[in-house]
Amino acid sequence: xxxxxxxxxxxxxxxxxxxxxxxxxxxxxxxxxxxxxxxxxxxxxxxxxxxxxxxxxxxxxxxxxxxxxxxxxxxxxxxxxxxxxxxxxxxxxxxxxxxxxxxxxxxxxxxxxxxxxxxxxxxxxxxxxxxxxxxxxxxxxxxxxxxxxxxxxxxxxxxxxxxxxxxxxxxxxxxx
Length: 176
Known about the structure:
It contains 5 helices and 8 strands; from the N terminus they run E-E-E-H-E-H-E-E-H-E-H-E-H. It has 176 residues and is an alpha/beta fold. It has one domain (2-174): 3-Layer(aba) Sandwich (Aminopeptidase), CATH 3.40.630.40. The protein has a 6-stranded mixed sheet with strand order 4-1-5-8-6-7. The chain has a two-stranded antiparallel ribbon with strand order 2-3. A hairpin with a 2-residue loop joins strand 2 and strand 3 (21-22). Helix 1 crosses helix 5 (159-174) and helix 3 (102-117) crosses helix 5. The longest helix has 18 residues, at 23-40. It is globular, with a radius of gyration of 15 Å. It starts with a strand and ends with a helix.
């Protein structure tokens, strides 16, 4: 399987910040962990760190790439709110509403986070009410597209373990 892992925020700073922790740094740890696990399992992975290019420009390069056809695109983010604590922390795994496979992959990732880390996490369509900002992040890419917000930045997590759980969900789907 050919997989693109992309850390979001395309050069717009660090994303959300809380207590000296920056979204881009946290998402990078998760993405690097997923990348290592997928490589170890024999998959081809293109890792794209946060860059200054707009999402649509990066996605055009992926779509026109001389690389083999990319089958899965995952964009990494961390959610943020002023009123989150450990009791109401939750994760959302978004899938492109145009995809028939996206909901299955998103559910596999959400289930892995719930089972392995006891997260309150669910798969949700990118056109769900209140989440209209998600679709523009993944709308222009040809492969099946997933956008991750596995938890809130205000709740400190072991990001390597989060990455392992995300990879576990992807690998479970790939092996099903």
